Amino acid sequence: MLYLDANGLDLAQTLQCGQCFRWQPGPAGSWTGVVAGRAVRAEHAPGGRICLTGLAGPAPEAEPAFWVRYFALDLDYPALQARMQAAHKGLAGCIACAPGIRVLRQPFFETLITFLISQNNNIPRITGIVDRLCRGLGQPLEGEGRFFAFPTAERLAPLAEADLAFLRAGWRSGYILDAARRAAAGQLEEDALRAMPLAGARARLMEVRGVGPKVADCALLYGLGRWDAYPVDVWMRRAGQALFTRRVKDPAAYLNRKTGGCAGIAQQYIFAWARSTGLTEKTHKNPACD
């Protein structure tokens, strides 16, 4: 077992906020997930800690740095939240909805594929497709229970759409294969995407079939740790209209300027607020702004 200082991390808030799809809730507030060929059970422990128990793959206690990085425990989130609250008073109400959210550092290729699958889809169906993909084409992991790694780009690249019929993913199968072929050919090199200006990295990802601005920004934010990426969908457009005055024409640029390049992390709190309030009207107001 591995015990880590949670530093305010809330597992449920983090794992249920729409950024990942391979964690399942268990008894007594525990969660079971597979990350980069490692299956673990995560749960809160006394003393403000989280406990990770290895189920398959490398034992968590053998590589604490991996899990510190994955859960973003190396970032001073309380200080970051204070900076966000000082940057814009409405963010205080957003953060209060789910202060324990942390933006995970997920494997890039897996993140790109899962957000391609997520388009025009719901969480249960996304989770089902991802599970079938891993069970059907992922490497089995040795350990307690039956777990599978996410399939590599090299495993997927030679396949045809007919080979993915078992996923029941519809037109998304073509997107999956195009992304895999480009990644296997070295066209989506992670270090290069991290080093590029954000607009250039987004444009490179949008060369992949089916990748629009939102999926590109999700892959950058959740899969490459590009905290300056700011995914926008209908929820976020409405939230932006409610949270910011008309003078803020570009919420992403505004938040990056105010938070030192962490607009994507602020976005996660804004999204949590939008979901928790049932934001459906463009005129909905954040009480924290009143």
UniProtKB/TrEMBL annotation:
UniProt cross-references to InterPro entries, sorted A to Z: DNA_glycosylase (IPR011257), HhH-GPD_domain (IPR003265), HhH_base_excis_C (IPR023170), OGG_N (IPR012904), Oxidative_DNA_repair_enzyme (IPR052054)
Keywords, comma-separated and alphabetical: DNA damage, DNA repair, Glycosidase, Hydrolase, Lyase, Multifunctional enzyme
Keyword Zinc: no
Catalytic reactions of this protein: 2'-deoxyribonucleotide-(2'-deoxyribose 5'-phosphate)-2'-deoxyribonucleotide-DNA = a 3'-end 2'-deoxyribonucleotide-(2,3-dehydro-2,3-deoxyribose 5'-phosphate)-DNA + a 5'-end 5'-phospho-2'-deoxyribonucleoside-DNA + H(+)
UniProt record, GO biological process: base-excision repair; nucleotide-excision repair
Record-level Gene Ontology MF annotations: class I DNA-(apurinic or apyrimidinic site) endonuclease activity; damaged DNA binding; oxidized purine nucleobase lesion DNA N-glycosylase activity
Residue ranges occupied by any HhH-GPD domain in the UniProt entry: 117-275
EC number per UniProt: 4.2.99.18
SMART domains per UniProt: ENDO3c (SM00478)
Protein family per UniProt: Belongs to the type-1 OGG1 family.
Protein name: DNA-(apurinic or apyrimidinic site) lyase
Organism, as annotated: Candidatus Faecalibacterium gallistercoris
